[in-house]
Automatic annotation (TrEMBL):
<dbReference type="InterPro" id="IPR058933">
    <property type="entry name" value="YMC020W-like_ab_hydrolase"/>
</dbReference>
<dbReference type="Pfam" id="PF26147">
    <property type="entry name" value="AB_HYDROLASE_YMC0-YMC35"/>
</dbReference>
<feature type="domain" description="YMC020W-like alpha/beta hydrolase">
    <location>
        <begin position="129"/>
        <end position="362"/>
    </location>
</feature>
<feature type="domain" description="YMC020W-like alpha/beta hydrolase">
    <location>
        <begin position="6"/>
        <end position="77"/>
    </location>
</feature>
<protein>
    <recommendedName>
        <fullName>YMC020W-like alpha/beta hydrolase domain-containing protein</fullName>
    </recommendedName>
</protein>
<dbReference type="InterPro" id="IPR058934">
    <property type="entry name" value="YMC020W-like"/>
</dbReference>
Length: 416
């Protein structure tokens, strides 16, 4: 087996020169690319050790890709780091970046958007060679890094550096910001205002240039045969579940996973188990009729008071990285002719979703003949509904949600 490269792409960090008080208060960022590839390589070794591949002498090439900036700046920088002579004197700083390139121009010929500084002594051609020679290539991206990774992989495929027809390629998207962050956090992020932080909210708008570029790249990646594991995190304080779970897209090469801490799962509410049921629907190719979108605000963590760690804690668990690699080597029965399907979502810019949306989404999904005809899915729903009467949420959004779901349950007949 040729060595499988593990490549990590960190999320957006508030730059120290822009927000030094953040760094002094919270310390340096923890979700670095080096940390991501360290966990990814450990997961790969563990999976290979437990499989028939133990007879192979396998070296894992770890490639941490680090740079701060907007999505297009980072894609261009990472392409330089992979495919060109790259100077190690370049630091991961927005200070050295050129002016922003037009999104329409930076893919697939991303090299045009950066001026190269060639230092033959510090060139890293082995990165490109390792990727080209590998049987398996495993990318890990967190938050904004998931968007960067998807566009980067599409560019590598377009330029022939990656060949999904010959290689198994997978992206592990951890709390990916595919449909944007919670619109309500804009008032907090404004204190860290940079071009990169402002750009995150462009993903809330399906018609924006960044969203269109991401959608095109995602189609390239999936239709050419790459896999993508989208991991959402329960109580994520930054990214809603419908965004991290890629609910606006359908393709057999997308596998969705929900990260939940043990304590939450043990005493989990009805909402948690309903979200898990929705993810099972999506992984079986069925529609959730927008139900996860309306559950997302109920699964949000907090950025004030008792601050949640949902957005970061998922990359501290080795099992998360194993899940991605296991899907990479799994047979999924999909050919290159499968097209990416875009599923319109309700407004992703609305701070407060339609109050009746939850009722109607639930009623529609439990009335769907395809859902009713799937014995395993239907049995899990009935098991989940057994928790409903015992669920006694506190006053506030969760109690309102119970009332809305009660209307949906009354409207749906549970006789097949």
């Amino acid at each position: 087996m040729a060595c499988p490269p593990a490549q990590g792409v960190h999320g957006w960090f508030p730059h120290e020169s822009v927000s030094p008080w953040i760094h002094s208060l919270l310390g340096p960022p923890t979700g670095t690319s080096k940390r991501l590839v360290s966990f990814a390589s450990a997961a790969v070794r563990k999976c290979l050790a437990a499989s028939r591949h133990t007879k192979f002498e396998c070296t894992i090439a770890t490639i941490p890709l680090e740079w701060n900036g907007t999505v297009e700046e980072r894609v261009a920088a990472h392409m330089d780091q992979i495919s060109s002579a790259y100077s190690s004197t370049h630091s991961a700083s927005t200070d050295e970046l050129p002016s922003r390139a037009n999104l329409e121009d930076f893919r697939p010929n991303v090299h045009a958007s950066r001026t190269k500084s060639v230092d033959e002594k510090s060139a890293l051609p082995w990165r490109k060679e390792a990727i080209e020679a590998a049987d398996l290539v495993y990318f890990v991206g967190h938050s904004q890094g998931s968007i960067v990774t998807t566009i980067l992989v599409a560019s590598l495929v377009d330029q022939g550096i990656l060949d999904p027809a010959r290689q198994n390629v997978c992206i592990l998207a951890l709390a990916g910001i595919s449909h944007g962050p919670f619109p309500g956090i804009a008032s907090i992020v404004q204190y860290l205002q940079t071009p990169a932080s402002a750009q995150l909210f462009e993903l809330n708008k399906p018609e924006s240039a960044l969203s269109q570029c991401y959608s095109t790249s995602l189609a390239t990646v999936l239709e050419r045969g790459c896999r993508l594991v989208a991991v959402g995190s329960w109580m994520d304080e930054v990214v809603p579940l419908h965004s991290s779970l890629l609910c606006g897209y359908r393709h057999p090469h997308i596998h969705r996973v929900l990260f939940v801490e043990d304590a939450e799962l043990t005493g989990g509410s009805f909402i948690l188990h309903l979200a898990i049921w929705c993810i099972r629907l999506l992984n079986r190719g069925l529609s959730d009729h927008g139900l996860i979108y309306f559950l997302s605000p109920l699964a949000a963590g907090s950025l004030v008071g008792t601050v949640s760690r949902g957005h970061t804690i998922l990359y501290e668990d080795l099992c998360t990285f194993r899940t991605g690699f296991e899907f990479l080597v799994k047979e999924v029965g999909c050919t290159e002719t499968n097209k990416l399907i875009e599923v319109p979502l309700p407004s992703t810019t609305a701070v407060r979703p339609d109050p009746f949306g939850l009722t109607w989404a639930f009623a529609r999904v439990v009335s769907d003949p395809a859902v009713r005809s799937d014995a395993a899915i239907w049995a899990y729903l009935i098991e989940t509904l057994d928790r409903f009467d015992k669920w006694n949420p506190p006053a506030g959004p969760l109690r309102d949600a119970k009332a809305q779901l009660a209307h949906g349950i009354r409207r749906a007949s549970f006789r097949k």
